[in-house]
Amino acid sequence: MTKNVMIGIGILLSTSDRNCRGMALDHEGNILYVKGDILIKLNVETGEGIARWTGPGTLTKPAVDTFGYIYVGTVVGVTPIHVLEPSTFELVYTIDLTPSAAYARGIEVSKDGKDLWTGNLTPGGPVYHYHSDIPGVLPYDLVEEISVDDYGNPIFQFMITTVDWGPDNTLWCSHETEDPELQSQNGLVVLNYNTMEYATLYMPEVPEGSYNGPRGVAFSLSGDTAYVVSFNGHRVWRYVVSTGVEEYNQVASCYRLENHPNPFRHMTTITFTLVKDGFVDLKVYDINGRIVKTLINEHMTPGSYEVQFDATTLPSGTYFCRMEVDGQVTTLKMLVVK
């Protein structure tokens, strides 16, 4: 069914239009809808258009702080970020970000508006994090470029299309590639700012020729249900996390997969820890998704393990070590350099 949304006598959008570039909720629960270079506020109960703002180019998914101020950038160049007054959509001030991603489809902001994060369509990232002690007065300075963990292992290998806040101070990064051979590696990388750990929620398998790359995630008020949308896959998945997001991250970190050295020339040691019994499937894949080596395929008991991987006969390039434990998947990017 097609529905037109109007403000005054101007038709702003049609639900049959496939030009949505991002959505968010404002501080009152109304819908912020981005169509190309236009940002629209919709009444959550009636669907009536309340306000609109036209940006300088195709807009990112917007973000909202506790006070209701709306932050939105452009897909190309990202910066400057435009901060809009909640009711009138009047421009309050702009934020210049240096450095910034060349392209991104979404941004996020902390509740107090002092911290900003941006996605990055460059494969591998980074996710940029900025901070201002006094927003609107002092500039936003770069805090960190999130791309590798404490061991130097890449956190991301594909595009980080957008970022969304989740329960318990977690930032969910949509991590995707359009490569049909690597759809099994698409997922949401969850950065936990309470524990300073991260985990990956991989997307469900889809039929050959289909896509499952996530474009954004939204949560129920209770925080135990997540809705993940795929732009190219034309799907919405519903996840119910009975243990809660924080506990999910703690469980995922118990299977942390690492290797040393990385990059390496011939041999590397892959290590992991099990906190309970489980069936472990550990394989190495090449960049085209082909299995290079099956390292483990058996039931294992709790403990710390290490296994040697010999790449002597393999050419230089990127490889992925994928471990599945009773349906939970963790992937590690490895680089062979000769």
From TrEMBL:
Pfam family, one: Por_Secre_tail
The protein, known as: Secretion system C-terminal sorting domain-containing protein
Organism phylogeny: Bacteria, Bacteria division WOR-3
Residues annotated as domain Secretion system C-terminal sorting: 261-336
